[in-house]
Design a protein that fits this description.
Layout: E1 7-11, E2 17-22, E3 27-30, E4 35-38, E5 42-48, H1 56-68, E6 74-80, E7 86-91, E8 96-102, E9 109-112, E10 117-121, E11 125-130, H2 134-139, E12 145-150, E13 154-160, E14 163-168, E15 173-177, E16 181-185, E17 189-194, H3 198-203, E18 209-214, E19 217-222, H4 226-236, H5 250-256
Antiparallel strand pairs: 1-2, 2-7, 3-6, 3-10, 4-7, 5-6, 8-13, 9-12, 9-16, 10-13, 11-12, 14-19, 15-18, 16-19, 17-18
Length: 260
């Protein structure tokens, strides 16, 4: 293997964290802001890009690609510099599930939503994946630039809510809300399709496009995209009481003191 071999343990149910156990000189890379805690003997170092490039221009190019996906220019590497096993723990940024992925058993590459990567064994390359079709690029919903994780080690991505894994047979087609798509293997054919119909578009309450995934390959789907959760929270904070079914409406807000 080219990547470091790491052991791990998932903890929690809806607000999960992953504890990585490192042998001496083993290391793990992570997104800035995902760190939770670590035992003594682990050294933390900030890297420009993903740390695999040797020249300055290569590092600059890799960091620029990460910037396109909306991620931080830097990654953080945690290395066990002691002579014994040590642990470092990373937490998901919002309620959901952490998905462990052994890249060696997934064809050496997965494609995921740009904000879903949490951490990985050192040596895993974190890059960007451009879609091949113009329609996907223009109407991808969550953005047509997705992340790719390449290597033969362990990688961890997080999802919102519950995660569902689907193994698609050759030619099997699955249609998914673009925001609910977490990741898929490189063998899956990915595209964007228009929902169709004026009533569906204007009054359906859903997006105008959905993702089409055609097998063979493996797909991970989340039940609660962070964008959907954020939108619902904003609508609840607008002062309207429709979610409670109140017939008083604005008068109810005034009685509660919200309209003063």
């Amino acid at each position: 293997m080219n990547n470091h071999e790491i052991d791990y343990r998932l903890q929690g149910e809806e607000m999960q964290c992953v504890e990585i156990e490192l042998d001496p000189q083993e290391a793990v890379i992570a997104e800035p802001g995902s760190f939770m805690m670590m035992t003594d003997g682990i050294q933390m170092q900030t890297l420009f890009g993903d740390g695999k490039q040797s020249g300055f221009m290569d590092k600059l190019f890799t960091a620029g690609k990460r910037l396109l996906t909306g991620e931080n220019l830097f990654l953080t590497v945690y290395t066990n510099t002691s002579s014994q096993k040590r642990q470092v723990t990373f937490a998901a940024p919002y309620s959901g599930k952490i998905i462990p992925m052994d890249l060696s058993g997934l064809g050496g590459k997965i494609i995921c939503q740009k904000d879903s990567f949490l951490c990985a064994a050192k040596g895993v390359q974190v890059g960007i994946e451009f879609t091949k079709k113009m329609g996907t690029g223009l109407f991808g919903g969550e953005g047509f630039i997705m992340q790719k994780l390449e290597g033969d080690g362990m990688a961890f991505v997080h999802s919102g809510g519950h995660v569902i894994e689907r193994n698609l047979h050759s030619g099997e087609l699955l249609k998914v809300d673009t925001g609910c798509l977490v990741a898929f293997t490189q063998s899956v054919d990915y595209d964007i399709q228009f929902v169709g119909g004026i009533k569906n578009t204007l009054f359906g309450g859903e997006g105008m496009f959905y993702a089409t995934l055609r097998g063979p390959g493996k797909v991970w789907i989340q039940t609660l995209p962070i964008s959907r959760l954020a939108g619902r929270i904003l609508s609840y904070g607008s002062g309207r009481r429709k979610e409670e079914g109140s017939i008083l409406g604005g008068l109810g807000n005034i009685l509660d003191g919200d309209g003063l």
